[in-house]
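input
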Amino acid sequence: MKLNELKDNEGARKSRMRVGRGIGSGKGKTGGRGQKGQKSRSGVSINGFEGGQMPLHMRLPKRGFNNPFGTDYAEVNLGMIQKFIDSKSLDAKGTIDHATLKAAGLARGGKDGVRLLAKGELTSKITIAVAGASKAAVAAVEKAGGKVEILAAGGERRAKGEKKAVASKPAREKKAANKAKKND
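output
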């Protein structure tokens, strides 16, 4: 056998049937659709229609819930951070944040930031800036001589224990101001 003699097995490649190409083709006239009726016409969309009976996809129970206000954190464990520091993928000297963890390949996703968890052991002294951390993780980092900075919702840093900033003007006053503006 030579390279120029290579070919598919008999029947491996079958060309599609071209319908509506004359009576002699065997698939002419109605093109294999039979006569009359909705399915013989073009533009039919009856997928899942069961003749007026409740369709299967509507009979089956629905499960689950997608919270539109839910937060999406990339969860990172202390043990993995230590492992990456040991393998020189992460630098323990600078501040470790979401961008650094993402660049190292440790934090995937997490559009709302990183949440630090306490699984594993940490021996390096690190400064880490994250959106959230478990109490055990904060304790473990501080035990190793490091520091945890919790970032506010917008990404700016806020001191540990400090609450999020609340609106300066109560909602009632704001509503009244908008109403007055509308009446003018």
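quick obs: The chain has five helices and seven strands.
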